[in-house]
Write a structure and sequence with these properties.
26% strand; 5-stranded mixed barrel; Spore Coat Polysaccharide Biosynthesis Protein SpsA, Chain A; single chain; Alpha-Beta Plaits; 3 domains; Ribosomal Protein S5, domain 2; globular; 38% helix; 24 strands
Length: 640
């Protein structure tokens, strides 16, 4: 398994993580709040299980190979290694916590590439801790959420001599801006959703700072303010910080980089006023202020400030555009001889494509399926028009905002689909149609312009059909719908749109869910998990393909559902393109169930690697692949 964990920068709100922690002692303090995000750079690793040891190797940023070293998975040895300090100590600390709490076995971890600067305020130590925590979580299926991985990483790092703060492990969220709130021992997180790109440059100031000294001096002002300097710091990390953070959230979520840049500049001035006098030797920061005031940069940036504990470590500049970002990097190298790293925060990638496999034979509907494919069986829609099932499904996708629908078809059926969606009616037939049917005929041609066809030469299972669309989908998230399922929402928001909106909010692969009695779960993919949003959104912890009732009772119960009821797959998914690599592995290694490449085992693998959410749909789906179910569909659609 390959993993990547980025570094972390604090956009605004530095130091308020530990300041908010003092609310355990002084509840009059305000909770700390920070806005963090991951970097474009980070640590890359290949990981696998080991029966009894940590086997570790790494590549430094300059390309130097380190290791391998082998540490037995024995608590005493792991703790001893963790307390030594140094690179291996972070992984050993996480391993000690993982073994203590979860009784895992060993781990082989090769950090084969590192492009993240070390000891520059970008949380490189936290990144390696999160990398180790994620490796244990996914290899041993500990079913930890991102927050759970953060906690395991934090506990691992504080097992070492590191003086990390609670926000450092926020790199676990990746390159998503996150609001972190620190209230004593309680940590809350909220992911932000951008409306526009923000172009940063991170600048290595090539100077020195003593983070330990900065933290030691600032911590003298807590938990109680007994001097004017301490009272000023409490004001800075309390109400002033709260205002800056909340205005920055609004700027990020409404797409206002100019406003965010001004807030960054203001935050730096406030820090210089209230915090720098407490540790002037480290926080006067001449290199940082020389950069922030450098004339040639001013027309290219909206603002800037220090990073992390501040001082002369790293700076962040918010550029006016992608072109300005490149110009800033060139000025840094040419005029200031300072290395810079680009960081672009962009809105979550939109789901533009849908995949609908329609290459099945329709065995259960024979001999009717010999006369017409089941996807062409008619359904009378709410508008009173008799439509083939495939038209209803494609219309749902397009009406939800999908731009391109990819139909996976048999070679012999391609002409039928193209004829239906793209061939014009002869004029004599078109002219016979009532006006509303003529509009429908024109609509069919318009729909046809949004369709792409992919040929599946042999029918080798649902997973194989989905894999056939890999090249057409490319490196994008996509909506997957079944070709023999009709969907009807209970509200004005279609079922497909419900899923797309959830993906836009959470950015994680999703599957639609429905509640199903135990007597029927042997016919469906079934799953279990923990409610993230009560009664609607589930963090999935296991997929099971058509389980037996005994297995379901033992492993798939969902808190809050009545006895004998489970959650099964609804027939709509939003999936990240990483799915195709996992499907390719299944196909290349001939991993089949009853001769077919199934999708559910691959969804389970994707869940283990990236996490997976389930959305309880506000609507129904109707399977037309069985005679009885087709009849029920007709009856349901006959109702208003």
């Amino acid at each position: 398994m390959q993993l990547f964990v980025p570094g972390r920068i604090c956009l605004v709100g530095e130091h308020s993580d530990w300041a908010g922690g003092y609310r355990r002692i002084n509840p009059q303090l305000e909770p700390g709040q920070t806005l963090i995000t991951g970097t474009d750079q980070g640590l890359y690793a290949e990981v696998s299980t080991h029966p009894s040891a940590l086997v570790l190797s790494a590549t430094a940023p300059d390309g130097t190979r380190l290791g391998p070293v082998e540490i037995p998975m024995e608590p005493g040895r792991l703790l001893e290694e963790a307390q030594k300090g140094g690179f291996w100590s972070y992984i050993a600390g996480v391993a000690y916590q993982a073994q203590t709490n979860y009784q895992v076995r060993g781990l082989v971890l090769d950090n084969y590439q590192t492009d993240l600067p070390i000891k520059k305020g970008l949380s490189s130590s936290a990144a390696i801790c999160v990398l180790a925590a994620r490796a244990f979580n996914r290899l041993y299926d500990l079913k930890l959420t991102v927050r759970g991985e953060m906690e395991l990483a934090y506990q691992g790092e504080i097992t070492t001599p590191s003086l990390c703060g609670r926000m450092d492990q926020g790199c676990a969220f990746g390159k998503t801006p996150v609001l972190m709130t620190f209230d004593g021992d309680r940590l809350e997180t909220r992911e932000l959703h951008l409306r526009a790109p923000f172009h940063f440059v991170l600048v290595d100031l090539q100077a020195q700072k003593d983070t330990r000294e900065i933290l030691r001096q600032l911590n003298h002002c807590y938990p109680n303010a007994e001097t004017d300097l301490a009272r000023g710091l409490h004001q800075l990390l309390g109400p002033l910080n709260r205002r800056i953070v909340h205005q920055a959230i609004e700027a990020l979520e409404t797409g206002q980089p100019e406003r965010l840049g001004a807030l960054m500049t203001e935050a730096q001035k406030l820090f210089d006023r209230y915090a720098a006098p407490i540790c002037p030797r480290e926080l006067t920061a001449p290199a940082l202020h020389r950069l922030l005031g450098y004339g040639p940069l001013q027309p290219l940036i909206w603002g800037g400030k220090g990073v992390g504990s501040q001082g002369d470590g790293t700076a962040q500049l918010l550029c006016r555009s992608a072109e300005a970002q490149q110009a800033v990097l060139e000025i840094l190298e040419r005029e200031l001889q300072l290395p810079g790293l680009p960081l672009t925060l962009a809105p979550r990638q939109k789901v533009r494509k849908a995949v609908i496999p329609v290459a099945g034979f329709g065995t259960r509907l024979f001999p009717a399926s010999k006369a017409a494919k089941k996807e062409f069986f008619p359904i009378v829609d709410r508008d009173g028009i008799a439509k083939p099932a495939i038209l209803l499904i494609v219309e749902e996708a397009l009406n939800a905002g999908i731009e391109e629908v990819i139909l996976v078809v048999q070679p012999t059926d391609l002409a039928d689909f193209k004829d239906f969606f793209s061939a014009q009616l002869p004029p004599e037939n078109f002219n016979k149609l009532p006006q509303n049917f003529q509009a429908c005929a024109r609509r069919l041609l318009e729909i046809g312009r949004h369709l792409t066809y992919v040929i599946q030469t042999s029918q080798e299972g649902f997973g194989h059909a989905v894999f056939s669309a890999a090249q057409a989908v490319g490196d994008e998230p996509f909506l997957l719908m079944l070709g023999d399922h009709i969907y009807r929402s209970n509200s004005s928001t279609s079922c497909a749109r419900q899923l797309l909106e959830a993906y836009e909010k959470y950015g994680t692969s999703l599957v639609g869910l429905r509640r199903t009695p135990e007597a029927h779960i042997a016919n469906f993919g079934t799953l279990t998990g923990l409610w993230q949003d009560p009664d609607r959104l589930l963090t999935i912890t296991e997929f099971a393909e058509k389980p037996t009732p005994d297995y379901a009772r033992a492993n798939l119960r969902i808190p809050g559902l009545p006895e004998g009821e489970y959650l099964t797959v609804f027939g709509q998914y939003v999936l990240k393109p990483d799915l195709f690599g996992l499907l390719k592995y299944q196909i290349d290694h001939n991993l089949r169930d009853q001769g077919e490449v199934q999708l559910t085992p691959v969804l389970e693998r994707l869940r283990q690697q990236q996490g997976f959410l389930g959305l309880l749909m506000d609507g129904q789906n109707y399977d037309i692949g069985l005679p009885g179910a087709y009849l029920e569909t007709l009856q349901a659609f006959s109702q208003p």
